[in-house]
C-alpha cells in the first residue's frame, strides 16, 4: 500500500475513534490483514489504549505492568481475529491532527498555478468528508467553461483559449473562502471545488456570484469581446460515511443537467443543485 494510502487509512480510523467519544468494540476483518497490522501498530505506539484504558489499580508500577500485559493480549487478539475494545489516547488525537495536516501539504498545482492538481481531488474529498455532518456539511461543485472550443476555433490561436481559461480560473479562486479548494487537471476547463463547513444554500449563493462575475469578464476573439460563462453543478454531503466516488458521480450528474441547459444562443451560465431544476444565471451589470 502506498504511503499516502496508509496515512489516509490511519487518519480515517483515528477519526472514527475520536468521533465515537468513548471506547468501541473492534472486530478484525479476517480478509483485511493490512487493517489488522495498522491496529497492531496503533496499540504498540499507544495511539490507542493507554494505561488508563487498562488499569484500575491505585499502584502506579503495578498499573503500568498490568497495562503492558493487557496490551500484548490485545495485540494477540487482533492478530487472531478476535474482538478487542479500543479507545483513542491523547497521543492518538495529536497523531490524528498531524496526519490531516501532513496529508494536505505539499500538493502540486495545475499548470496555471491557480488551482490544486486534480490528482489530489478524491483523496482530499475523503479527508474533508471525515468531518461532514448535518451541522457542518461538505459541498462539492463542478464547473465547466462554456464555449471554449468555439473560442479556440474562431481565434485559431490557443493562446487566446489559454487566456480565457486563466481569466475563468481567477474569477473562481477569487471567491474561495477559508477551507475551500479548487482542483483542475493538466488541461481542459473542468474545475472541482471542495467547500467545507458550508450549507448547500450558502454554497449555491457563492456559485451564483461566481457565475455572475464570470459573465462580466470578456475575452477578445476576432475583433469582438465575448463574455465568459460556465455550467455548474453543486451537491452536499452531511455524513462522514459518504462515499467520495459516489459524491463525485452525483456532482457530475448535476453539472451535466446544467450543461444541457446552457446549450442555447449566447451560451449563458447555468447552475443545477442536486434534486433541483437547472437554472440560467443572468448576467449583472459591472459593479
TrEMBL record:
Entries under InterPro entries matching the protein: Diguanylate_Cyclase, GGDEF_dom, Nucleotide_cyclase, Rev_trsase/Diguanyl_cyclase
Signal sequence, start to end: none
Ranges for domain GGDEF: 136-275
E.C. designation(s): 2.7.7.65
Gene3D superfamilies (UniProt xref): 3.30.70.270
EC primary class: transferase
Organism superkingdom: Bacteria
Pfam families, alphabetized: GGDEF
SMART domains associated with the record: GGDEF
The protein's name in its UniProt record: diguanylate cyclase
Organism taxonomic ancestry: Bacteria, Pseudomonadati, Myxococcota, Myxococcia, Myxococcales
Amino acid at each position: 500500500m502506498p504511503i499516502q494510502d496508509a496515512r489516509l487509512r490511519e487518519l480515517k480510523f483515528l477519526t472514527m475513534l475520536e468521533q465515537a467519544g468513548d471506547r468501541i468494540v473492534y472486530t478484525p476483518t479476517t480478509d483485511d490483514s493490512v487493517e489488522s497490522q495498522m491496529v497492531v501498530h496503533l496499540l504498540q505506539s499507544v495511539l490507542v489504549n493507554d494505561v488508563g484504558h487498562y488499569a484500575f489499580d491505585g499502584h502506579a508500577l503495578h498499573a503500568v505492568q498490568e497495562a503492558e500485559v493487557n496490551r500484548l493480549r490485545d495485540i494477540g487478539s487482533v492478530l487472531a481475529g478476535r474482538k478487542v475494545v479500543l479507545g483513542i489516547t491523547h497521543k492518538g488525537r495529536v497523531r490524528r491532527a498531524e496526519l490531516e495536516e501532513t496529508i494536505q501539504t505539499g500538493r502540486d498545482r495545475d499548470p496555471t498555478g491557480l488551482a490544486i492538481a486534480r490528482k489530489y481531488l478524491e483523496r482530499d474529498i475523503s479527508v474533508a468528508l471525515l468531518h461532514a455532518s448535518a451541522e457542518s456539511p461538505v459541498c462539492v461543485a463542478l464547473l465547466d467553461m462554456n464555449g471554449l472550443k468555439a473560442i479556440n476555433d474562431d481565434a485559431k490561436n490557443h493562446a487566446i483559449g489559454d487566456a480565457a481559461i486563466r481569466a475563468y480560473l481567477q474569477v473562481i479562486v477569487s471567491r474561495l473562502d477559508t477551507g475551500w479548494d479548487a482542483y483542475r487537471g493538466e488541461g481542459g476547463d473542468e474545475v472541482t471545488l471542495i467547500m467545507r463547513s458550508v450549507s448547500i444554500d450558502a454554497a449555491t449563493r457563492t456559485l451564483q456570484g461566481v457565475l455572475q462575475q464570470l459573465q462580466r469578464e470578456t475575452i477578445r476573439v476576432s475583433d469582438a469581446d465575448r463574455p465568459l460563462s460556465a455550467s455548474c453543478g453543486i451537491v452536499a454531503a452531511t455524513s462522514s460515511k459518504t462515499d467520495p466516488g459516489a459524491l463525485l458521480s452525483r456532482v457530475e450528474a448535476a453539472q451535466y443537467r446544467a450543461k444541457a441547459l446552457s446549450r442555447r444562443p449566447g451560451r449563458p451560465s447555468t447552475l443545477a443543485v442536486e434534486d433541483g431544476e437547472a437554472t440560467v444565471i443572468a448576467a449583472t451589470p459591472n459593479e
